[in-house]
Amino acid sequence: MLDLRGDPIELTAALVDIPSESRHEARIADAVEAALRAQTSGFEILRSGDAVLARTALGRPTRVLLAGHLDTVPVADNLPSRRSFGDDGELLHGCGTVDMKSGDAVFLHLAATLDAPAHDLTLVFYDCEEIEAAANGLGRIERDLPDWLRADVAILGEPSGGYIEAGCQGTLRVVIRAGGTRAHSARSWMGDNAIHKLGAVLGRLTAYRARTVDIDGCTYREGLSAVRIDGGVAGNVIPDAASVTVNFRFAPDRSPEQALAHVHEVFDGLDVAIEQTDAADGALPGLSQPAAKALVDAADGRVRAKY
């Protein structure tokens, strides 16, 4: 069983050694649930799919929500965890060490060792964060268990270099498709090359100048990037279809609808079709809220925007 009361670094290693790629979090969720039930007191504990939730009801005037995802990106020959020693001291390596099983370990350790917290606590360990927003376990919890997400301030244990990274940028993905006419490359003039049409799309992306926005003293930097290109039939065929996937990371003063409208503006006039495939709202930093201000003060004002 996971040892929640021991060294958080050892707990991190134990969590890392449980493979938990997105959509395959059942084993780690089982381990987290069992450890919370056996090693904590005063928590209501609930399972939602492959997410584990726990909360106190101490009657405190404020509530802090601690959240972390249990899933990782695909393993790349980086399990089990290992240690190394160098100029930076001892390092722990392995899939999920930074993003974000170390954060999960800290929250689990706090749940087991804090005897009299100043705030009521809610812990949310959720699934499917590393893939499309529609699969994100937080969305399911928001739909099915909205009261579990109510709090005065929420802290996610993503890596931040010791800073409070406030708010969060939104994300939008679109596929930009170009059509053409297929032909043999020996008679290329008889075709209409769809891949060539993407040159104009890439040109707009290259010339694009991203917006920088200051909100509550946090500087958010937007980004519009090509992340995938698809096209081609064979080495001697003019392609009749091609596409580029574009990811727009937008500041939290935009809604997903406004972000999509902006993407259409950027590519206006081109002979392409734009299809939205994924979107997630940003979050304003909310640093003027009393609970957030107390957190900033505790961190000696070390705050920056969450990208």
TrEMBL record:
Keyword Hydrolase among UniProt keywords: yes
Pfam families: M20_dimer, Peptidase_M20
InterPro entries for this protein: ArgE/DapE_CS (IPR001261), Bact_exopeptidase_dim_dom (IPR036264), Peptidase_M20 (IPR002933), Peptidase_M20_dimer (IPR011650), Peptidase_M20A (IPR050072), Succinyl-DAP_deSuclase_DapE (IPR010174)
Quaternary structure note: Homodimer.
Organism expressing this protein natively: Mycobacterium talmoniae
Superkingdom in the source lineage: Bacteria
Entry keywords, A to Z: Amino-acid biosynthesis, Cobalt, Diaminopimelate biosynthesis, Hydrolase, Lysine biosynthesis, Metal-binding, Zinc
Stated role: Catalyzes the hydrolysis of N-succinyl-L,L-diaminopimelic acid (SDAP), forming succinate and LL-2,6-diaminoheptanedioate (DAP), an intermediate involved in the bacterial biosynthesis of lysine and meso-diaminopimelic acid.
Pathway entry: Amino-acid biosynthesis; L-lysine biosynthesis via DAP pathway; LL-2,6-diaminopimelate from (S)-tetrahydrodipicolinate (succinylase route): step 3/3
Reactions the enzyme catalyzes: N-succinyl-(2S,6S)-2,6-diaminopimelate + H2O = (2S,6S)-2,6-diaminopimelate + succinate
Alphabetized GO MF terms: acetylornithine deacetylase activity; metal ion binding; succinyl-diaminopimelate desuccinylase activity
Species classification: Bacteria, Bacillati, Actinomycetota, Actinomycetes, Mycobacteriales
Entry similarity comment: Belongs to the peptidase M20A family.
Domain Peptidase M20 dimerisation intervals: 170-268
Cofactor(s) in the UniProt record: Zn(2+); Co(2+)
PANTHER family per UniProt: ACETYLORNITHINE DEACETYLASE (PTHR43808), N-ACETYL-L-CITRULLINE DEACETYLASE (PTHR43808:SF31)
This enzyme's EC code(s): 3.5.1.18
Protein name stated in the entry: Succinyl-diaminopimelate desuccinylase
UniProt keyword Acyltransferase, yes or no: no
GO biological process terms on file: diaminopimelate biosynthetic process; L-arginine biosynthetic process; lysine biosynthetic process via diaminopimelate
